[in-house]
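Data availability excerpt. The first of two example chains:
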Amino acid sequence: MIKITAKDNPFIKHLKKLLKNSKYRRERGEFVAEGLRLCEDAFLSEAEITALVVNENALEKHCDIINKISKNINSFYVVSDSLFCYISDTKSPQGMLCVIKTLDKSTLFDKIKDNSKFLALDNVQDPSNLGTILRTAEAVGIDGIVMSKDCCDIYSPKVVRGSMGAVFRLEYIITESIEEFIKSHKELTSYASVIDRNADHITDITFKTPCIVAVGNEGNGLKKSTVEACDSLITIPMKGRAESLNAAVAASIIIWELVK
């Protein structure tokens, strides 16, 4: 156990950059999970935890889980409550965070089962939306998520918190583009979720498996090239004067219809 007291400590600077900079996270191959629940989820999910940081209050209050995690890592730091607040990305810090190796999900599509159902996210930009989608996908039972490279960073603190630990457990991959992924996986029946009165209503169709459904950007929807690459167009029927749905809400409805 190492005690840190100074803001200019190299490890504290490293933590701040991991929390704020997606490019730095990619370069270092690490991200941060903050909070008792997320740290425990990371440990139980057997994610590779490289460092544990706690404040003095958490060291007394949550000694059981802290002892379990610290036994399996080389880097265990204790900081003051004020220094943890300086590090923290949350308004009400719980005094515990883990540094975790980015997760390797590259084998997800090595073997696709006949009944597999996947969701593709095309340039989804809001971290809160992505976190909610991941959380819903795990809860309802999607087999995996495909994200285009231009989606927001899945390892951003907001996504990790919003996913409620799903980021550790849900199968996902990041691909150059959804269009190219669909073209290279012809074994998947592909559906594009669009706002189009001529598209098939999602409540009226039976998904042909194995399949993948693509959901687009919050403001612009799916890229035209992605839509053109898909086998079928589907839409969520809406009443009243609503013209569109929040991306996370739309994805949640699609996930429910996909697996029900």
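And the second chain:
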Amino acid sequence: MKDRPGDHHRFVLAGGTLHDPAHGRDGVVADLWVEDGKIVAQPADAAAFARVDARGLVVMPGGVDLHSHVAGPKVAHGRRIAPHLARGRRGQAPAAVPTIHATGALYAALGYTTVFDAAIATAAAGIAHAELAELPILDKGIYLLAADQTDVLAAAIRDDRGELRRLVSTAIEVGRGWAVKVANPGGPAFWKRGRRGDHHDLDTPLPGESLTPRVLLERLAEVVTDLALPHPLHVHTANLGLPGNWRTLLETMKSLVGRRAHLAHVQFHSYSGGQLDEGSFGSGVAPVVEFFNASPDLTLDVGQVLFGGTVAMTGDSAAAEHLAHATGVPLVSHDLHLEGGCGVLPIAYKEKNLIHAWQWAIGLEWFLSVADPWRLALSTDHPNGAHFTAYPHLMRLLGDAAFRREALDRIHPRVRSRSPLRGFDREYTLQELCIVTRAAPARIAGLTNKGHLGIGADADIACYRPSRDLAAMFAMPAKVFKAGVLVTEDGQLRATPAGQTLTATPRG
């Protein structure tokens, strides 16, 4: 075989050290054979395959970002509202909300090959798809905010299961969606009637109706399961960002027991304390993670906060308005002519800020407390908690306890003394990092051809140089292949193929 690394129609990635948790390969030296964008069995005619040397490299499936915000009106507003964050500077962090073309290249430069936008209003699906069509390299999909539709909510209020099923199915088909997202169940009904920023529990009926957020969640989860969508109901529960909201998250989990569901950015839903007492603010993770660990039907992503400037954007307009009032920063509320709408505002997380330091520590507490990494997806809720390009830094925080302790020593002293984080010695292994960034997100999303290196998988492959500095290791892969095409090499963009749009087909 000739060494022709530029030939990606047929090649063998030779001698790499494979991390493929789905097939139990943990640091196994083996060859990967690729043909027509797929991983194939070793062929009888090996001479027809070019040889790409992977000796000494850590080889993993391409990364899958299960929960991000990369397209649609909210992202466009994010680029406008913080012009000081809109452009990356040479040698510094990239733009907080990069252009759609930069987004694909930046993800690929980390070894990520698939991304989902986690909050698109059904009426804005066409706009989002038009933008995502310009997103290079990555395969991509969207989660639709179908629960915000007036007719969907009306069917849920009547408990008309047949009509609810039909409406949700139509929303997925017409909007070319992958999953159903609920952001603050029933929240727009409260918000548009003056309930701004105060708590409402899951058993408070929607204004003028008998339906409660808890029952809405239950009915939506059942419909999504009945439609056999690949990803379960994606839940952003009520009271995001409010002190004491760990109780709401716990009640959300209890309402979903026995039903498959995915819990989004749980860090923002795990706070103790009272609304008027900043000093009581803290971690509410312990009772919630205990329940989660005992509930095998549930999965989650964390939404880790990392320090620095970014832009918050959420389909939970009430939460965005509350944050803007609390911080005094400018807010854009847009798409209010639609059923839901979104809120967008700039934010800067600081190590010495009491609340920000707690958010940082609470996210890491979640990562280090979940017993089964297969039920967990690494995320920063990009760009809400941090930019996705900070993933390598987060991976080092998880895999290097000494590095984590050094970071803990820099944050607000009250958090240092009260957070349980110092008591965690757990360090993620390379195999566990591969699970939470690749294998688990792909499995949770229902992507059978991604997140693994088995025969028939998409040839989305990332090759890293091993290093004790995990941030450096994962920040610059030696090679990244998308569907068998070499797209980045040592930080240099080599190709920008068009990725696929991932759409679900509801069961008829």
